[in-house]
């Protein structure tokens, strides 16, 4: 019987360790936001409107009403129809908490094939606001300014 107690104790400890480590595998919110930004940049480079707009909320506000979620999707769809290429080079992304939300700042360099967009779009300084919707983080606002 003592051997059985040792086996039960060992299994209990093993299950406890597994559960403890499984809790450690939760991806931090900051990392999830960086991943969403990276995925959106890749989507823009592939002219994938659906993937670009996935992390945006339905009420997304771009540059104080200049661009909505729908506007971004339509612009990328038009670029794809015209065979446009978009080149995206991301700078470092800084993510910081703001209460129950996050702000992410980065620079992005955009270029294109020159059909729909100017060939040299330039470097932009971007600030985005993120909020949790269900289990995922979504961008609800963004402002950008072209750097000279």
Describe the structure using short key phrases.
148 residues, alpha+beta, Nuclear Transport Factor 2, Chain: A, six-stranded mixed sheet, 6 strands, 39% helix, disordered N terminus
Short description:
The protein is of the alpha+beta class and 148 residues long. It has 4 helices and 6 strands; from the N terminus they run αααβαβββββ.
Topology:
Elements: H1 2-24, H2 29-45, H3 49-53, E1 56-62, H4 69-81, E2 86-90, E3 94-98, E4 101-112, E5 120-133, E6 136-147
Parallel strand pairs: 1-6
Antiparallel strand pairs: 2-4, 3-4, 4-5, 5-6
Characterization of this structure:
The protein is of the alpha+beta class and 148 residues long. The chain has a single domain, classed as Nuclear Transport Factor 2, Chain: A (Roll), CATH 3.10.450.50. Helices cover 39% and strands 37% of the residues. It contains four helices and six strands, in the order αααβαβββββ. Strands 1, 2, 3, 4, 5 and 6 form a six-stranded mixed beta sheet that branches. A hairpin with a 2-residue loop joins β5 and β6. The longest helix is centred in the first third of the chain and has 23 residues, at 2-24. The chain starts with a helix and ends with a strand. The relative contact order is 0.15.
Helix content: 25-40%
Mean pLDDT: 83
- Dominant shape: globular
CATH fold name = Nuclear Transport Factor 2, Chain: A
Which structural class matches the secondary elements?
Answer: alpha+beta
CATH domain class name:
Alpha Beta
Second CATH tier, the architecture: Roll
Q: Sketch the topology as an H/E string, one letter per element.
A: HHHEHEEEEE
Q: Count helical runs.
A: 4
Q: Which regions are unreliable across 5 or more consecutive residues at pLDDT < 50? A: 3-23
Q: What is the β-strand count?
A: 6
Query: Rg from C-alpha positions?
Result: 22 Å
Strand portion: 35-45%
Largest sheet: 6 strands, mixed
Domains (count):
1
Alpha-carbon distance between the two ends? 78 Å
